[in-house]
Design a protein that fits this description.
heterodimer; A: alpha+beta; Aldehyde Oxidoreductase, domain 4; 7-stranded mixed β-sheet; 17 helices; 26% helix; B: alpha+beta; Ubiquitin-like (UB roll); DNA polymerase, domain 1; 5-stranded mixed β-sheet; 6 helices; binds FE2/S2 (inorganic) cluster
């Protein structure tokens, strides 16, 4: 069997027949339910909380119950588990109301009154900037703009709004005391992030707290950092009650108050001489909400990618995260790149149009190659086939056989996506450890990376089975439980197959010689390849071990009367190294393309006065079956030496290039520029009617 | 209030208000958790069940409307021959990722064949438009239906 050949997924039977129990389906004895009392104002001081008289069966859990530190340990520890004196966004949790009867909880919560002293909130990035509320800022450059000779400057500003992950399974956790151990079950991507947050806030050792992943009904980054907050809350509650406590959000809470994709503003100035780009200057701003969370890491990915697939002689990149009193923003598939790549790739198409050249041929002059310098002063170590991908895209889309059609437009994008953590993050922060264990006939994969729909169990089992040359049925994946599996890092950054799969492949190689033994344990640690040289302080060196690449073309139809857009076709050419399973790859491509399509033309989420306005399925529109274009996907094989069987990252890349391709296609159809997504019929109408 | 109805072929009787949602009754009183709550407002199809052979979003059905009706959930549907072919098609086509939409999707596919003997892509898109999936991009779900059509799958 070739590694690329499709095997049946190992985890789907119980999903199809409904017997798989997600967190909301799990049974616990004497289970109690929790609901969150939340701030109703974006910024202020809590003067008093008027609770109704104590009721039998109702327990209030708040900051006073946190036995050690009322802080959620992420990169900083600036976010409280429960708001104490001040609140900083609408929806900020103040307490949990816990009981056995859901109706009683709701009627109790409705009787609570919180009195605030209201402060003037910061609701826009401009306001935040004028107040000097910049959370983080980074700048780096190549070449110089001093004495730069140029004929003209092409300047544009781009905006993106919120995007909600909208995993079909809402956020949910259960806290339970089990044999004196504070145990948290939950829908999550990163069991050890949660464990570390518990250890820190509760002042516990690893053997006193335990985190077990529950089957996870989609995540897309939304269950990366956010579950730590909920896990801490139910941990505190279960310690107080000594009963299992379940906190599952309702959809409105989930949409209005959990992390989502950062709204952004990008400013790009291109310096042109003799119709060629001689320099590009970028600035990107992200709205982080009131707490830093992962925003600075998101910003770093946004800016490290900002030069895209191009090497310009002179470039300058500046990025900032702003503190506001809007909802707290965070991880979402693509992690900053969807914002920066929307801006850059739309800009490249607008430039090509302005210079009256073909957008693909135009790009070819600037494509990066192996051995060249990255925007952060590192070296591209891998073979890069952008020209070949461009030609493959032209062939796949039959671009040269296009007929002139009314109301039809085409747009392209070319995207790099670095796999794994940024810079030396894998070696310095994550330090992944994987265990491969043989017990009699079976081989157990012991890691903390989770199945959340993406096919991790199947891909990783297949890697191990292929190295050992055994049936995949003999490879068993253990549900991540911090009492049983080592910390192989979070399930994020498209790192699971490439980095963790790579470690498992190495472990399996070592196992090979010992297959005749009854019981074997192989432990494998991440080692940074020599070519990764990184200075985190200066943000200088190789920002990523290896990049995956995509070349996308979108074809759209814009209705001349209603301005309704139909995306009819997406053509995509991908370089993800060697795909581990063609069907899993296609699953990621389809899913990513459709989420990207939503981002580009459908999913509008705004905030008014600090309150998310689109917080239900009926007013936040995601793609349905009727929005699905024909997806034509192809990939080239480009073995990555340090990936398992030559694999690189997949998951996020597939989303990133879609929105700029669709936005450009719409511009092509209406012959007008539009500088924000989603491109809705209202924006098209406005663009057509402005002079 | 005592409410009688038929659940997965068995006559059952519960104490409940008329306003309680059918979804909660199946999940909480009968521990049938294959029926999921995605949106709680009739938009996503994760909570689909058959009620007297009609496909309904159980989050939108107050118990008052279920009195005396026959309700079939995924747990019972999964025991049928009709289900087996759909399961196989979903498995072979890669139509399942996180699985949260899947039980509802499976029931909607079955319903599709009640309407059409061999649904076209356009009919599939219309027929499944009430079922949201955030993972798959739907393509492989379409492929699963196409596979059933090719196999000559029939509603019975
Ligand atoms: S939960 Fe009933 S339709 Fe979404
Ligand atoms: S498979 Fe995840 S929502 Fe459909």
């Amino acid at each position: 069997m070739k590694i690329t050949d499709h095997v049946k997924r190992l985890d789907v039977k119980e999903k199809i027949n409904g017997s798989l129990r997600y967190i909301e389906d799990m049974r616990f004895d004497d289970l109690h339910y929790a609901r969150t009392l939340r701030s109703t104002i974006p910024k202020g001081k809590i003067i008093s909380i008027e609770y109704p008289p104590p009721e039998k069966g109702i327990t209030i859990v708040d900051a006073s119950d946190v036995c050690h530190k009322n802080e959620v340990a992420m990169i900083l520890k600036d976010m409280p588990i429960f708001a104490e004196d001040t609140v900083n966004y609408i929806g900020e949790p103040i307490s949990l109301i816990v009981g056995k009867d859901k109706n009683q909880i709701i009627s109790f919560i409705n009787k609570i009154k919180v009195n605030y002293e209201i402060f003037e909130p910061t609701l826009t990035m401009e306001d935040s900037q004028s107040k000097g509320d910049i959370l983080t800022e980074h700048t780096f450059s190549l070449g110089s703009f001093e004495n730069l000779e140029y004929d003209e400057r092409f300047e544009r500003t781009y905006e993106t709004g919120y995007q909600e992950q909208l995993y079909m399974e809402k956020q949910g956790v259960v806290g339970a005391m089990e044999d004196g151990v504070v145990t948290v079950y939950g829908s999550m991507q990163c069991p050890y992030y949660v464990l570390n947050a518990l250890k820190y806030a509760l002042n516990k050792e690893a053997h006193e707290v335990r985190v077990i992943q529950a089957p996870t009904g989609g995540a897309f980054g939304g269950k990366e950092e956010y579950p730590s907050l909920l896990a801490l809350q139910v941990a505190v509650a279960t310690m107080k009650l000594n009963k299992p406590v379940r906190l599952v959000f309702d959809r409105r809470e989930d949409m209005a108050f959990t992390t989502k994709r950062h709204p952004s503003k990008s400013y790009i100035k291109t310096y042109i001489k003799d119709k060629k780009i001689v320099g590009m200057d970028y600035e990107i701003h992200l709205d982080a909400g009131p707490y830093l969370g992962l925003s600075d890491v998101v910003l770093q990915r946004a800016i490290f990618t900002m030069n895209g697939c191009y090497g310009f002689e002179n470039s300058r990149v500046n990025g900032k995260t702003f503190k506001t009193n809007n909802v707290f923003t965070g991880a979402f598939r693509g992690f900053g790149a969807p914002q920066s790549m929307y801006a850059l790739e739309l800009h490249m198409n607008q430039l090509a149009n302005y210079l009256n050249v073909d957008p693909i041929e135009f790009r070819k002059d600037y494509f990066v190659h192996k051995g060249e310098t990255t925007s952060t002063g590192g070296i591209f170590n891998e073979d890069i086939y952008l020209e070949e991908m461009a030609d493959a895209l032209i062939a796949l889309s039959q671009m040269h056989h296009r007929k002139e059609e009314k109301h039809i437009g085409y747009g392209v994008s070319f995207i790099p996506h670095g796999g794994g953590f940024t810079g030396d993050g894998e070696a310095v922060h994550i330090k992944a450890e994987v265990h491969l264990k043989k017990v009699k006939e079976n081989i157990y994969i012991l890691i903390s990376n989770v199945e959340m729909g993406q096919g991790a169990i199947t891909a990783l089992s297949k890697i191990v089975a292929s190295v050992l040359d055994i049936d995949i049925e003999r490879v068993l994946y253990a549900i991540p439980d911090t009492f049983k599996v080592p910390d192989s890092g979070p399930t994020v950054a498209s790192r699971t197959t490439m980095v963790v799969g790579g470690l498992l492949a190495k472990a399996a190689e070592k196992m090979k010689a010992r297959m005749d033994e009854e019981e074997v344990l192989i432990v494998e640690h991440f080692k940074q390849p020599d070519y990764v040289v990184w200075n985190q302080e200066k943000l200088h060196g190789n920002a990523y071990m290896a990049y995956s690449w995509s070349a996308i073309m979108a074809r759209v139809h814009v209705d001349p009367v209603t301005y309704e857009v139909t995306c009819t076709d997406i053509y995509g050419v991908y370089d993800v190294g060697i795909p581990i399973d063609e069907k899993l790859l296609l699953g990621q491509i389809h899913g990513g393309v459709i989420q990207g399509l939503g981002y580009g033309m459908l999913e509008r989420m705004t905030s008014e006065g600090g309150q998310i306005q689109h917080h239900s399925f009926s007013n936040y529109v995601i793609p349905t079956t009727e929005d699905i274009p024909n997806i034509h996907a192809k990939w080239i094989e480009n073995r990555f030496v340090d990936g398992p069987f030559g694999a690189k990252s997949v998951g996020e890349l597939t989303l990133v290039g879609v929105a700029p391709a669709i936005a450009s296609a719409i511009e092509d159809a209406i012959k007008k520029e539009i500088h924000s997504i989603p491109v809705t019929p209202e924006k098209i109408l406005e663009a057509i009617h402005e002079n | 209030m005592k409410i009688d109805f038929i659940l997965n072929g068995n006559a059952v009787s519960i104490e409940s208000t008329y306003t309680r949602r059918l979804l909660d009754v199946i999940r909480e009183d009968f521990d049938l958790t294959g029926t999921k709550e995605g949106c709680a407002e009739g938009e996503c199809g994760a909570c689909l069940v058959f009620m007297d052979d009609l496909l309904v979003n159980s989050c939108m059905v107050p118990m008052a409307n279920a009195v005396g009706k026959s309700v079939v959930t995924i747990e019972s549907f999964a025991q049928t021959e009709a289900y087996k072919s759909i399961e196989n098609a979903f498995m072979s086509s890669g139509a399942v990722q996180c699985g949260y939409c899947t039980p509802g999707m499976v029931m909607a596919v079955y319903e599709l064949f009640k309407k059409y003997d061999a649904p076209t892509l356009q009919q599939v898109k219309e027929g499944l438009s009430g079922n949201l999936c955030r993972c798959t991009g739907y393509q492989m779900i379409f492929e699963a239906v196409a596979m059933l059509v090719k196999e000559g799958y029939r509603y019975d």
